[in-house]
Amino acid sequence: MGKLALYGLDASPPTRACLLTLKALELPFEYVFVNLLTKENFAEDYLKKNPQHTVPMLQDDDAYLWDSHAIMAYLVGKYAETDDLYPKDLLQRAVVDQRMHFESGVIFEAALRRLTRPVLFLGGTTLPQANVDYINEVYDFLETFLEHDFVAGDHLTIADFSIVSTISSLGVYLELDPVKYPKIAAWLERLKELPYYEEANGSGAAQFMQLMKSKNFTVVP
């Protein structure tokens, strides 16, 4: 195996999804911190490797890959001993892919990023109540998806890593009600039992929430 390095920061949900995958696969890797707040991702050397200037970014020898979903699929495809985390069966894989597209377009982009970017990067101090309320739709969908123990079926997949990294960050805006969403609450507890969960996701989610609370934003009608 060549040199593996993951570029990112713990507060970033997509970075944490990749950390969960690396830990699940028990792969040795270097973790390179990239500070988005000081725009280290716009440094000339970083842009040569990743012109989209995003995190996470994976280095595998001389190859560079970004987007957490692509990175997770690549890691499992290349290094996993089994296909449990990303099934080769076409229907099972399609369900995993659908859940990851849901995370990317609905949970992360339409919910989390829409609330985070104005405050964290644009200097905003208020957030529309309607944008916060949208998180309820996210929770509603996810509760419906959880017909089994995990988001894409009866066993753990990279879709769980993708979704939990973002869901565990949304509470800073709208805390999950375990009575209204018992399946999500149980699923979260199931993932927290993973021996690498706290290191790969729990502590980073706490960092994200602390960072956002420090901005003292208010929600307005």
Automatic annotation (TrEMBL):
<dbReference type="InterPro" id="IPR040079">
    <property type="entry name" value="Glutathione_S-Trfase"/>
</dbReference>
<dbReference type="GO" id="GO:0004364">
    <property type="term" value="F:glutathione transferase activity"/>
</dbReference>
<feature type="domain" description="GST C-terminal">
    <location>
        <begin position="89"/>
        <end position="221"/>
    </location>
</feature>
<dbReference type="Pfam" id="PF00043">
    <property type="entry name" value="GST_C"/>
</dbReference>
<dbReference type="InterPro" id="IPR036282">
    <property type="entry name" value="Glutathione-S-Trfase_C_sf"/>
</dbReference>
<dbReference type="GO" id="GO:0006749">
    <property type="term" value="P:glutathione metabolic process"/>
</dbReference>
<comment type="subunit">
    <text>Homodimer.</text>
</comment>
<dbReference type="InterPro" id="IPR004045">
    <property type="entry name" value="Glutathione_S-Trfase_N"/>
</dbReference>
<protein>
    <submittedName>
        <fullName>Blast:Glutathione S-transferase 1</fullName>
    </submittedName>
</protein>
<keyword id="KW-0808">Transferase</keyword>
<dbReference type="Pfam" id="PF13417">
    <property type="entry name" value="GST_N_3"/>
</dbReference>
<feature type="domain" description="GST N-terminal">
    <location>
        <begin position="2"/>
        <end position="83"/>
    </location>
</feature>
<dbReference type="InterPro" id="IPR036249">
    <property type="entry name" value="Thioredoxin-like_sf"/>
</dbReference>
<dbReference type="InterPro" id="IPR010987">
    <property type="entry name" value="Glutathione-S-Trfase_C-like"/>
</dbReference>
<dbReference type="InterPro" id="IPR004046">
    <property type="entry name" value="GST_C"/>
</dbReference>
